Amino acid sequence: MSEAGWTRFRRRIRTVPFHLVLFVLVTVLAPLWLVIGLLIDLYRTLVCKRPAMAVRIFAFGWVYLAVGVFGLAALLGHWVFAGFGLSVPMMRESSYRLQELWARALFGAFRWIFRVKMSVEGLDLVAPGPILVLMRHASVIDALLPNVLITHGAGIRLRYVLKKELLADATLDIAGNRLPNRFVDRAGDSATEIHAVLALADGLTDREGVLIYPEGTRFTEERLQHILETLQARNSDLAVRTKQLRHVLPPRPGGTSALLGAGLDVVVVAHAGLESLATIPDAWTGNIVGSHLRVRLARFAGSDVPADRQGKVSWLFDRWEEIDRWLDGA
């Protein structure tokens, strides 16, 4: 087994049992959690005049664990039926279908539990591929949107650029590594990572695309201020443009700039309504309950993207400034 294989094995002998044991414990103790949650919610609604959240958060957490257990069982079955992993194409096809089902199940549960309405503009512009999808990152939930909208809604399968930290999710780790994705090590060699990200654009069909979150992490006002201070300390020209942003982080050029050079049409996905879930503790405010999630997709011809790096960075900032202005009204 290669060094990378041993690393995956050691990681999964921790994450897979942990997920299974946590699901069992949460399920067995569910009556206790629900009683405690109901008492907390009564206090919140009657005294604090805030939406009931304790039972909702518990319910979504249980669904997340349950869907993960289903996913792990399905992945094991795929491996067996693929000749104990010998048929890579069979496992890849099964993982694509499971990924879509996983995202749709979690997003459907999220909308139902928290009573979230949704409206989408521009979905008809997504197909055909190959495309590069640039998506705003504002919440722990918006990672589900690409599969729900672009894969299920528009029929475009995506190759993802994701941060390495997400490998802590056992289902995402196993399924994600069976697919042509890249889990980026942000502390690793940047040239190596950019090369690997760019390779995702090779061999795309008219029913495929690559997705990246140009901001690199979820928006918070504290992060925006920190990035601005860093750019100003470096006397970067981008500091002036970053100072004008209010709702989004400035896009990181790195991998996004490299993918913009692949000549693909670009689909930019903006969304508003998930800001109250920038972090998991943010859910406790209750602002997400009964909210309206608005999604806007816009398509740009690959031929309109400048060829030089400075031009690509400026073009990318133009798109993010457009999102920032749209969020003012949304």
Q: Topology, please?
A:
Blueprint: H1 3-28, H2 30-48, H3 54-81, H4 88-114, E1 117-121, E2 131-135, H5 145-153, E3 157-163, H6 170-178, E4 182-184, H7 190-199, E5 208-212, H8 221-233, H9 238-242, H10 253-260, E6 265-272, E7 292-300, H11 309-329
Parallel strand pairs: 1-7, 2-5, 2-6, 3-4, 3-5
Antiparallel strand pairs: 6-7
Helix pairs in contact: 1-3, 1-6, 3-4, 3-6, 4-5, 4-6, 7-10, 10-11
Sheet with most strands: 7 strands, mixed
Number of domains: 1
Corresponding CATH architecture: 3-Layer(aba) Sandwich
The protein's oligomeric status is: single chain
What is the tally of helical segments? 11
3D structure, described in words:
There is one protein chain. With 330 residues, the chain is of the alpha/beta class. It has a single domain (3-329), classed as Glycerol-3-phosphate (1)-acyltransferase (3-Layer(aba) Sandwich), CATH 3.40.1130. It has helices spanning 3-28, 30-48, 54-81, 88-114, 145-153, 170-178, 190-199, 221-233, 238-242, 253-260, 309-329; strands spanning 117-121, 131-135, 157-163, 182-184, 208-212, 265-272, 292-300. Helix 6 (170-178) links the parallel strand 3 (157-163) and strand 4 (182-184). The model has no long low-confidence stretch (mean pLDDT 92).
Q: What would a concise description of this structure say?
A:
Helix content is 53%, strand content 13%. With 330 residues, it is an alpha/beta fold.
